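Notes to self after the Tuesday call (sharing in case useful).
The group wants a holo model before anyone commits to mutagenesis around the pocket. I volunteered. Ligand is zinc ion. Logging inputs and output together so the record is complete.
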Amino acid sequence: MTPEFPQTGNTPALDRRKILRYAALGAMAVPAGAVLLDGSGARAAATGTTDGLPDYAPIPPDALGPALNANGYYVGQIGENLFWVTDSIYQTMFLTTRKGVVLVDAPPGIGHNLMRAIEDVTRANGRPSRVTHIIYSHYHADHISAAGLFSRVERIAHAETRSLLKFANDPNRPLPTTTFEDRLVLEVGGERLELAHHGPNHSPDNIFIYAPEYRTLMVADVLFPGWTPFLNLAVAQNIPAWIHAQDVAMSYPWKTLVGGHIGRLGTREDGELQRRYIADLQASARAVLDTLDITPYYLRYGTQGNPWGMVNEYFKEAVRQTSAPVVAKYTGKLAGVDVFTESHALVLFESLRIDWGVLRPLGIHP
Ligand SMILES: [Zn+2]
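Result:
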């Protein structure tokens, strides 16, 4: 999908911790077209280990991105002047313009490799390598706390990002220099990005960054191409709005998605698959809310004056019943469903109750 790009290959002095980390990341990425992990392959080799840790379902090969270079990153071209960079866990994009580089986010996990990736690209295309603008997708440290590595830069973010960062008072996340409320069009050196805030979702300030000329959308922590979302519906701070944000993302006419996480770009089919998975999970949680009897938990714990015990055991069973059919349906289609579906089920179940008001056995007393 993306042409091979000359990567910085020389490995500077690496400490042992870094080598181990890179080895682990390298194991996550496969070269395009490689056939791996058919259930009897690399993951299966981990079975029988004595560390006491569980084995998870094999990762579908389609979920994995391109192999990383010796420095632990991959940089690829999305369109003429638009590029993306990943460490297999985080990803971001940047534009090379006639006046300098516009970088979106600065994930600390990619860290100094951001500059290496930018130099790989600008050395080849002859455009200036200095980063002149950084756009913050949202205030979370795991996506922007390498921003302090770049000086003399215009930092653009939602107004709420500024408030949240002021409160955080984190030197690794310098305050934005330019903020907006609803929309902002950024034009730099012949390139254009359209920034929009469609309300709170994953975080109160999470924005959509669209490159119309490349039909590429970046939105962090909403769609996870090839994978189930990260823990607890990507730790969404507003569950109904996060679910709606999937639809907002799909309403843009993009062909390529930069999702902020994992090692590959997204397609529209990836977005549709996640929407079906979340809709199935929501329907399953709703069915369990309608049918799961709380009486045994009341008799066992409620009558002992322990409502927390009652609700905890009721929720545990609800999570089990909600997740099981969905995990069975999507194993092999989405990576990590056996890892995080139960966490999604818990937050969805509780959100159905308190956000949507489907209280069922814990509703209005007769
Ligand atoms: Zn986040």
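Two things stood out.
The longest strand covers residues 74-79.
Residues 138, 140, 143, 202-203, 220-221 surround zinc ion (CB under 6 Å).
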